[in-house]
Design brief:
There is one protein chain. The chain has about 450 residues and is mainly α. It has one domain: Na+/H+ antiporter like fold (Up-down Bundle). About 70% of the residues lie in helices and about 5% in strands. The chain has 17 helices and four strands. Helix 13 runs antiparallel to helix 14, helix 13 runs parallel beside helix 16 and helix 15 packs antiparallel against helix 16. The longest helix is centred in the last third of the chain and has 47 residues. The chain is globular and about 75 Å long. It catalyses: Na(+)(in) + 2 H(+)(out) = Na(+)(out) + 2 H(+)(in).
Length: about 450
């Protein structure tokens, strides 16, 4: 490996290799569209639950169906949270493994920074929540609620702003969100699990071993994996562990490197991601939002978000904790590891994305429901998640729009220079990214 190659891989937020840029662009397009669908679903839930027809919303959300003999007689809300979100976490796990095996996180120098940023972005909001409830005499059960970014919502905000920000920054946001989403699901598995059923968990573990062996021996065919995946999911649910953990486990087992000897055009992980990402972004997450975001809004209820310690801790954790944690984690990793910030980029870009990462929705609502089983308490936490995400998105919009104007002016200036000298910049036109060549952008 040459020293130039080593330096290129250790530059954080630098220009990604072409295959990586194509993969990230595809993911961003789907997640952005899915974010807009998610936004519509959340708005429908809020409006529906605050109209005279709110009773029909509650009746539909609590409607039960399934197979009671298999322990799967669940409400519509639980099917979306335990079932459909498993698809969301399966796709997230595939994305993370692909980045670790063949993507920009395959070396420690490039993996360190987003991972450290994600961990700090989880720890600081949790600490702020705990400090808030300790001062107000509240419950510490919700410490994990403000820990994760909703990537679909965050990318939807970027899409609405029509941003000119560099694609590498968006790729960082995607990686950061995947890492802390999986960190949140690990928290769910460790801290929000009770009434374990060892026999069911043993069956789920055996199913995962079979899943691994099928991958190991290059067995292909959906008829092997779909029934096996559903069985693993059902056993995990009955084992007392949140069923979304099954999606994470299967996603991390799927092989994400192509077998050149077998002439594979795409790895099993790539094929699964290609098929399931639209389902996750366009169906699974919006349906979860539809049945999780329905909160009764009233002036006294909104006032309690700022007077009760638990919802106040969630708001502060999302708006302040996520920003401080991610920005500080990024700075410390760039300062004390081999990763470094690309000199063409500014720390103001990182700050804008750190604020944007305070938009917590899908995972925050999921953890809120697990941490506060009482519907009345859960309502206040949901309202806090929605308000905190709204504050974070508003502040991020101001920062991102400012950066957007700067990058647009630089791009327009480069285009004028190009037109003047008649020599187009090959790198600029090959990447299509106006933000990758902006020396001194501040």
């Amino acid at each position: 490996m040459s020293s130039d190659d080593s330096r290129e891989r250790s530059v954080f937020l630098g220009l990604l290799p072409w295959p990586e840029r194509v993969q990230v662009a595809r993911a961003l397009r789907t997640e952005t569209v899915g974010g807009l669908v998610l936004l519509v679903a959340a708005m429908v839930a809020l409006v529906w639950s605050n109209t005279p027809w709110s009773g029909s919303y509650e009746a539909l959300r609590e409607f039960h169906f399934g197979i009671p003999a298999l322990g799967l007689d669940l409400s519509v809300q639980h099917w979306t949270a335990d079932g459909l979100l498993a698809v969301f976490f399966l796709v997230a796990a595939i994305e993370l493994k692909r980045a670790l095996v063949t993507g920009q996180l395959r070396t420690p120098a490039t993996a360190a920074l987003p991972v450290v940023a994600a961990l700090c972005g989880m720890a600081v909001p949790a600490a702020i929540y705990l400090a808030t409830v300790a001062a107000g005499g509240g419950s510490a059960e919700g410490w994990a609620v403000p820990m994760a970014t909703d990537i679909a919502f965050a990318l939807a905000v970027l899409a609405v702003l029509n941003t000119h920000l560099p694609s590498a920054l968006r790729a960082f946001l995607l990686t950061l969100a995947v890492v802390d989403d999986l960190g949140a699901i690990l928290v769910i598995a460790l801290f929000f699990t009770n009434d374990l059923n060892p026999a069911a968990l043993g069956g789920a573990a055996a199913g995962l071993v079979v899943f691994y062996l099928l991958q190991r021996f290059r067995v292909r065919g959906w008829w092997w994996y779909v029934p096996l995946g559903i069985t693993i999911w059902a056993l995990t649910y009955n084992g007392g562990v949140h069923a979304t953990v099954a999606g994470v486990a299967m996603g991390l087992i799927l092989r994400c490197a192509r077998d050149a000897r077998a002439g594979e055009g795409a790895s099993p992980g790539e094929r699964a991601e290609h098929l399931l990402r639209p389902v996750s972004a366009g169906i699974a997450v919006p349906l979860f939002a539809l049945f999780a975001a329905g909160v009764s809004i009233s002036a006294p209820g909104l006032g309690e978000v700022f007077t009760r310690p638990e919802p106040l801790g969630v708001v502060l954790g999302l708006v302040i904790g996520r920003t401080v944690g991610i920005f500080a984690g990024t700075y410390l990793a760039a300062r004390f590891t081999r990763a470094r910030l690309n000199p063409d980029l500014a720390w103001a870009d990182v700050l804008a994305l750190a604020v944007l990462a305070g938009i917590g929705f899908t995972v925050a609502l999921l953890i809120g429901e697990l941490a506060f089983p009482d519907p009345a308490d859960a309502e206040h936490i949901k309202a806090a998640v929605l308000l905190g995400s709204l504050f974070a998105s508003g502040l991020a919009a101001l920062l991102v729009k400012r950066r957007n104007r700067i990058y647009r002016r630089l791009w327009e200036a480069e285009n004028r220079d190009e037109d003047a000298d008649g020599h187009p910049d090959i790198d600029q036109h090959s990447t299509g990214d106006p933000g990758t060549r902006t020396p001194g952008a501040r």
